[in-house]
Amino acid sequence: MKKIMKFLTVTAAVAELLFAAVLGTANYFTPDSYTVAEGGSLKWCSGAFSLMRDGKKNVSVSAGGRFPKTYQATLMLCNAIPVKTVRVNVVDKTCVVLSGKPFGIKMFTNGVVVVGLADIQTESGVCNPASDAGLCVGDVITAINGKTMESNIDVEKAVEASNGDTEVFTVRENGQKRDITVQPVRAESDGLYKVGLWVRDSTAGIGTLTYYDPSTDYFAGLGHGICDSDTGQLMPLLSGDIVSVAINGITKGQRGTPGELHGYFSSDNAMGSLSANVACGVFGRLNRSIQGTAVKIGMKQDVKPGAVKILTTIQGSAPQYYDAQIERINYRDDVQSKNIVLHVTDPKLLSQTGGIVQGMSGSPIVQNGMLVGAVTHVFVNDPERGYGIFAEKMLMETRSVSAREKRLAS
């Protein structure tokens, strides 16, 4: 009897540990928030997970008023085991117009970004006033002596006019402003006053437009933010436009060397204006609607490993569908633009580009007739594979930008 009791005790302990491990794994790998269309219900992973609210299982969600609306519910495993409390965002049933077309970006920064520091040779030796004062790469200069700085030229002129007197630089770092006193010095090479900074006030490039939202006239593209090439930080947006682009060449991707689409701005007329440059892409308002296939946005719980189509342009300005596979999915909320691991399988695309190349960022990923994501990054050592972002994240940002600009305009 003692042996039986001991066996049962050990079995119960092991079962308890396994149960805790299952719950811990489910808690870690499932999102803390879900977006569900009005009138729908959450049944995720072949029905393994569902929602319970106010004691009712498999609830049909309703906004009960204006969209979006957020409430809390319990994520249930097998309709029986509570995993954790989650946030449910209810949105209206929406369709967007797929693009997949290349577009050019002309962007000006909100302030002037410090992208480098350089020593200055003076009569009394080598020094770097900016570094000595505490300026760092990635700082954004917004003003000098209280005067707003909007361009590289503004900074250059302000320093040259100092006559060697100390100047107060107002800089922004991680959203916080601070004042730094800098002492310009006279450069031996040309006799001009300098502080030892490299700065940048604009950028331009090519990407792919993901979709157009006809309910708001706003667009989404890239699937990741525009970052400075030297600092790796998001460029603070002041203003910008997007223009049409025609692709006229490809550098094929190889292991260790990312490929690239080459193109030219086919028109100087702006298609639209930029409103936001954030971690999940660029967003703004189009000057005119675009033609294309209208599809529903698939929420992250709708995305499954398996076959998908990538809509992208590798010649001219006409997008085409190419075959790919979703190999892995990361549903965690703290993952920004690397939710999907994508494997290009289309022979034509592989033969011409080697897989995913720079310029394809933002290309729509379509599964089961829904837009589920957008291409974001290539694996440098495996160009056939890359990352994608959930389309749901881009949709929520589109609606947020649209709502914010409507409030500002009212």
Report on the structure:
The chain is 17% helix and 48% strand. The chain is α+β, with helices and mostly antiparallel strands. The chain has four domains: 1-28; 31-93, no CATH class; 96-106 and 205-409, Thrombin, subunit H (Beta Barrel); 119-195, Pdz3 Domain, CATH 2.30.42. The strands form four sheets. The protein has an 18-stranded mixed β-sheet that branches. A hairpin with a 2-residue loop joins strand 13 and strand 14 (176-182). The model has no long low-confidence stretch (mean pLDDT 84).
List the topology elements.
Blueprint (H helix, E strand, L loop, with lengths): L1 H28 L3 E5 L5 E2 L4 E5 L2 E2 L11 E9 L3 E11 L3 E4 L3 E16 L2 E3 L2 E3 L1 H5 L6 E5 L2 E2 L3 H9 L6 E7 L2 E7 L2 E2 L6 E2 L2 E17 L4 E4 L15 E15 L8 E19 L2 E6 L7 E4 L8 E7 L7 E10 L10 E5 L2 H7 L10 E4 L2 E10 L2 E9 H19 L1
